[in-house]
Amino acid sequence: MTTQSFPRPQAILYPTLLLLAALLLPYATPANSTTSLRVAVLDFASASSDPTLAPLGKGLQSMLITDLSHVGGLTLIERERLTEVVAELDLQQSQYVDPGTATELGKLLGVTHLLTGGYVVDGARMNIDARLVALSGEVLLATSVTGERDAFFELEKELARALASALAQASGGELEPKVRAKLARIHTADYAAFRAFSEGLSAFDSKDYDGAIEKLRAATETDEDFQLARYTLDDYETIISQLRARSNQLELGRRELDRLKKDKDRQDVSGVLSKLWEVAEDTSRQEERLTAIYLLAVSYANIGRNRGKLHKLREVEDTFAMERTADALTRAWFAETSERWPALPRMLSDRFWRKLPEPESFDKDFAWSVDHLWRYGADYPENRRNYLLSDMRYPEHTARRLYLDRREEVALLEELQAQGIELGAEEYWQNEMEEKLVDEYRAVLRLDDSTRLLTRRSRSETHAGSVRAIAEEIERNKELAELLLTSKNKAVMREWLLLGPTLSWSHGPITKFAREQLLGPRPTPEALEQLGRARELDSRGYVLIGGVPMWSHQANWALRTAARDDELRSTGVRYFEAKADAETPALVLYGGDAFGKGTLTATVDFAPADDFWPRGVRADRRPDGLTADDVPAGRPRVGFLVGLTDVNCGKQENPMTEERELVRPTTGWMVQIAGDKLQWIALRESARGSYDRKDAFEERVIAEADLGKSKGALPVTIEVSGATVKVKAGGTRATFKADAPVQGFAGLLLRDQGYVALDPLTLDVDQAR
């Protein structure tokens, strides 16, 4: 599943042990050493007939590398370089042990020694063989260890000690006591965790990034003390985020270049943007490339003093697509600058930019932009640091572009606070960040953390009024904690405390309402009514549905999410329309990336959920619950949109008539559930109302299939690949064809009277892996 992530604090603060592509640094040779060794640890090959055991060799390899990194006098070859060379030679695991191949591999890697090995798992027993060989052919160590499979950690430690001793002696030294102590530390004693960890490494090497994250998370959940797996998970999440952000940026660049070259009427700005996109793809010039990404991100995001820079394009282009382009550029910027901070700002703002290059002086202006971003950025060096610190106090805009939920936004704020202190932020800055964290912790119900900061502040406060204010804040946290503790339905109570403030309710009314309506095992009708209001989709921002952002375009009043565990996160969406003659269809856009290959899944249920309360039905008039008249029995039409283009293009003035006309209507394809029919429809917007409302669509039914009289929830899977769309709805399977490869955004078009829920709802976009 497409997800977005950002580097966790530990990925910044701790040295990484596993990701050899960037993490295993050369260790200094001890004073008594006479030889410097360069060692490559190859994958251990499985001799078992069971192919599912093959990944264990990567787990053994990583554990041994981590253990051997404690031995002085060794330089361990980066895993990235090792993987590249193995790929170049097109080697299989079984070929590692061939003397001729091993020698060729060693020379390409520039090593003095190779460590090769194999293992056999036979029922409950496990045997591991290892050979430490010099390129000269000398065998420093050939050993084998055998024992219980579930005690694999004992076998790995026995092998690590033997290898470390042999390497220490070869480099002219001996193992120090502290090294022996480090070698004795067990990574994990849980075989299931070890296996999941190994499978995660194997999936990453195969570029199955979603699978890698899933397996590594399973390893850390199985054994919470498995630090090696936790560090690897943190690093892989960061690297995958960077790879995908870079891939999205390149794909966007290609599409934008094609589009801008066709825009003859706006050659000035189109030409400048085209040049910036070309520079953004040039990996040979890092300063210029990142500067171009920054300028593009700020321009497309329409930020601050630079609002309107692209107004000529916004008059005619798809502003939804431009906003999503800004999101992708921000993700690419954030992923790459996270490792370069404080040389570059991480938060997206116009602080370090004044203008786009002019067409007639592009080279000169762009060179100035590079210097401004990388070296100056202010009249005085001290001001540059102040600019960095100022932007770090307000991460909300960048967080929205990164598609973070509220908890992730708070984690980002924590990370920025730590970096600000590292940068030498003044006391007033630290105090302001701490005050902000007090409120943000409370907003996501991290009440102990909020109280901890308040208690610390109270110890240094001497003013009586300030002490009283802090005490009141602590009491607020205690009151919220007590409500969570005493409620008989903690999930609903938690949701109300998270969402109540979005209704512009203050603390007092929120807690009073909670005590009166939400302490029991089931929320009252009035509580369901207010929760329903809080779950309504807002056209001003997104909610993450199944981890994917969803934006409401129109008919917001008919759309709500399912229950939320975060202000910005839910599992599904609900539609309800009471009027039989409603004119405006509900339209939502799902996912921030236009795509041509991916899978959309949903469970469609026309039976109202237990916690559903219809909009417009007053709870005080239905204190005993809903009647049949409150929820019409009609079934709405449910449309899954794919390949949606020109999502939000405004009308353009016709110079002949001076009337504003719909020149670029929204078009796309739709898989629709209508009664007992599954339909494949070519969709084209045919009428535009006020406020850019899409009043009507021309629908051409290309093909349809019979769904039958399905009862209960209906599972739906839609697989898009080029011009082919495969659909499975309950027991019905159908393959549909488009006129051309599908390429565009996904969404939902919901119409007619009645109720329907799509929960869970997920979208998995295939990206470069």
Description:
The chain is globular. It has 769 residues and is α+β, with helices and mostly antiparallel strands. The protein is 41% helix and 22% strand. The chain folds into five domains: 230 residues, Rossmann fold (3-Layer(aba) Sandwich), CATH 3.40.50; 142 residues, no CATH class; 77 residues; 37 residues, no CATH class; 225 residues, Jelly Rolls. A hairpin with a 2-residue loop joins strand 18 and strand 19. Helix 19 runs antiparallel to helix 20. The longest helix is centred in the first third of the chain and has 36 residues.
What are the salient characteristics of this protein?
single chain; 25 strands; ten-stranded mixed sheet; 23 helices; alpha+beta; Rossmann fold
Average pLDDT works out at 84
User: Separation of termini?
Assistant: 12 Å
The CATH architecture of the largest domain would be 3-Layer(aba) Sandwich
Number of strands: 25
Quaternary organization:
single chain
Low-confidence stretches: 1-34
In angstroms, what is the radius of gyration?
30 Å
The CATH top-level class label of the largest domain: Alpha Beta
Largest sheet: 10 strands, mixed
Summed up, the domain count is 5
CATH fold description of the largest domain: Rossmann fold
